[in-house]
Amino acid sequence: MPTEEIDQNSKEKNENDDQVDDDDGGMPGLGFGASGLAHSGVGLGFGSKNVNSAKEEVNETSDDFLPTAFGKQFKERVLQRREEMEKTKLNKNSSRGRSERREAKSDGNIGGFENHTKGIGAKLLEKMGYKGGGLGKNAQGIVAPIEAKLRPKNMGMGYNEYKEAVNFPILQESLDQNKGLPQPISESQPKENMWSKQSRTKKKKDYVTAEELLVKKQEQGLDVVQKVFDMRGPQVRVLTNLENLNAEEKSREKDVPMPELQHNVRLILDLAELDIQKIDRDLRNERETVVTLQKEKEQLKNDASRQKKQLDSMEEIVTVVERLGHESQTSTLTLDSLAKSFGNIQKRFPNEYKLGSLSTIACSFALPLFFREFQGWDPLTHPENHINVVSVWKNLLQGDEIFDSPYTQLFMEVVFPAVRISSTNTWQARDPEPLLKFLDSWEQLMPHQALQTILDNIVMPKLQAAVNSWDPIREHIAIHKWVHPWLPLLGQKLDTFYPTIRNRLESVLHVWHPSDVSAYTILSPWKPVFDPGSWEQIMVRFIVPKLLAVMHEFQINPADQKLDPFYWVLTWASVIPIHQMLHIMDIFFNKWQEVLYQWLCSKPDFQEVYNWFLGWRDLIPAELSSNEHIRARLYAGLDMMNQAAEGLDVVQPGLRENISYLKAREQRQFQAAAAKVDDVGSGVDLSLKEVIELHAQENNLLFKPKPGRMQDGHQVYGFGNISIIIDSLNQKVFAQTEDRWTLVSLEQLVKLEKNYVMRRR
Predict the structure, then answer these.
(1) What single string gives the DSSP state of each residue in 432-490?
(2) Minimum mean pLDDT range among 75-79, 185-189, 263-267, 288-292
(3) In Å, how far from its chain's centre is CA 475?
């Protein structure tokens, strides 16, 4: 503020007069922080300002002090305030002078008036050790206030060693005593005016270059600066940062001098920074544009050179095509010269060959020549003719197109008509080899479209007619020999023929006898072709019943064995489902074990018996010998042979002693039932089936076989309402529970029957 400048000038004047180096003030008075007592004129509890000095300072700098209309108004207001302050100070000084004279007459009796008042100031001072005189520890405080003399008008501070203070010796003494002590900084210490001429000349200004500003902004990430218009006041303000929105009000609160001027300067600075950033951004954009244009220029140059090269190539190609057209008109053009010319063009100019669709032009030149070349050709008689010529033209005409390429057009117009005519007139479905040989020879050259057309329009109709007219009794050629070769090409399309083929086969199997091996020759190739369900249906209906009949009639005689029926059955082992084949073999093994038991009981030659066993074992094919059930039946016969060789009693197959799964309680029940039968007088050992039948009778349940029902080669029986199977070899009983077969005991059978009855109720 202007008053602070006056204090600063007074301070410098007093420092020069009193020769005090770098000291801003003396010792403070009572309860006050004084700054520069020698020049501020501060007494006990008073502070004074040199109004005359301020006025002279303002007058001195009036010539260049804010030479604007705003500055003149500001100057007038400051002078008016200074005059008011000057009058106030003069009144105070006059009253202070009169009081000092009264105090001087009272012989230094300071504070004597306290004796006649109720004040406690003197009492408080006495309690703190005050005995009169100056204040302070060493009584260094002044008694009389400092009298200031008015500086003449337009006189500078310190001019001609002019002294403003009158009573200065006491203060000077205190300053000398406290010269070396650090002085506290007073809040009233004058501040430096940033806008004065003297400050501008003394301080070194700090400038920021445009490069440093851009680097700083880039680090801060302020690439985009927006303007904000503050319209809250009477005038519109332009801001570049919301932090400065209330900067003017904050400056006024902090008593910052001239906040409006500082705000305007700050705004000009922000706008300048904004312009610098905008110019830098535009410069960078222009540089990027230059780089982009340079790249486009290079690209255009490359395109121009490439197009010029293509133009030269196309001119050369046009020349060759015109020459070939002239040769075609004069009938001097051949397939070899045509293929050589277009092959050379394709090799030298591959891109232009595709871009100009030269394959279509080549096809148009080649079609008339191919018609003459293929005239009179029979593809079924000479399928390998013309393969080399067509393979050369496939590379020239195929291109990237597969279904609608010029090569496909050439094949369908030249090769396919010859195949269609020859297949329709001479080819027979029962002799597939000629057509299959042609398709195999032309496999790599035939388009997919042509192949499907031949199969759908030529092969399938003739096969359909042949299957419909096929009679398995009169024809000597098996149907699979002329149908199965088409499986790789036709696949599922042949499924439409299978119902007809099955019906024709079933019609002749009714009168078939197992001794006729031709049925196996006709049926066995169809097992991998028919679905498993259809194949098993044919076997169960027509093959298995007749094989069962043969096995029931089969006689086992070690002395004179006839094996032909056994061979008839084993022939079908590879095509009949395994569970059906196990049922047939169980009939054989039952007879085989019975004969072995009788032979062992007659004290035979064990070497002869062993050879007989090995002979039967070797007759069983690998499809059956690898089955666990078949091996178990063979091991059972081997155990009987071992028992006889060791001199033990050979156990007859099917006795109750071999039931290993029964528990002790069930065994006792079984023995009791057997003893009851023995008491009747039969004296015959019971099989597992007979024991179960007896157990059913004791519980008043019906036990009978179910005709036509087999499970894993075993007959299915009805135990009341429960379906069971009996494994006589392993002495086990299985019952059907919830679509699966479970091992059960005799007691569990009765429980299952009772639970079934309860559920039905």
Answers:
(1) -HHHHHHHHHTTTTS-HHHHHHHIIIIIHHHHHHHHHT--TTT--S-THHHHGGGHHHH
(2) 185-189
(3) 65
Beta bridge mates, 425: none
3-state secondary structure 44-66: CCCCCCCHHHHHHHHHHCCCCCC
pLDDT tens column, 323-346:
888 888 888 888 888 888 888 888
Q: Which residues contact residue 588 at a Cβ distance below 8 angstroms, ignoring those fewer than 6 apart?
A: 551, 554, 566, 569
Q: What is the DSSP string of 665-715?
A: HHHHHHHHHHHHHHHHT---PPBHHHHHHHHHHHTT--EEEEEEEEETTEE
**Distance (Å, rounded) from C-alpha 472 to C-alpha 362?**
54
Per residue in 701-734, pLDDT tens? Answer: 888 888 767 777 778 888 888 889 888 777 888 8
Per DSSP (E only), the strands in 304-420 are: none
Cα gap 732→743, rounded to integer Å: 7
Beta bridge partners of residue 734, listed in sequence order: 725, 743
- Sorted by sequence, the CB contacts under 8 Å of residue 730 that are 6+ apart come out as 632, 660, 661
**Cα(715)–Cα(710) distance, integer angstroms:** 5
Instruction: Calculate Rg over the CA atoms of the chain.
Output: 66
Per residue in 485-530, pLDDT tens? 999 999 899 999 999 999 988 888 888 899 988 889 999 999 999 9
Do residues 115 and 126 lie in contact, with contact meaning Cβ atoms separated by under 8 Å?
A: no
Q: What is the reported pLDDT for 688? A: 84
What is the model's pLDDT at position 354? 83
Under the phi-then-psi rule, with left for phi > 0, alpha for psi from -120 to 50, and beta for the rest, what region is 491? left
For the chain, report the end-to-end CA distance as a whole number of angstroms.
Answer: 116
Number of H helices, E strands in the chain: 32, 7
| pTM value > 0.85 | no
Integer Cα distance of 645 and 639 in angstroms: 10
CB atoms within 10 A of CB 11: 21
- The string of DSSP letters for 122-166 reads HHHHHHTT--SSSSSTTS-S-SSPPPBPPPPTTPPTTGGG---BS
Percentage helix, strand, coil, to 5, in the chain? 60, 5, 35
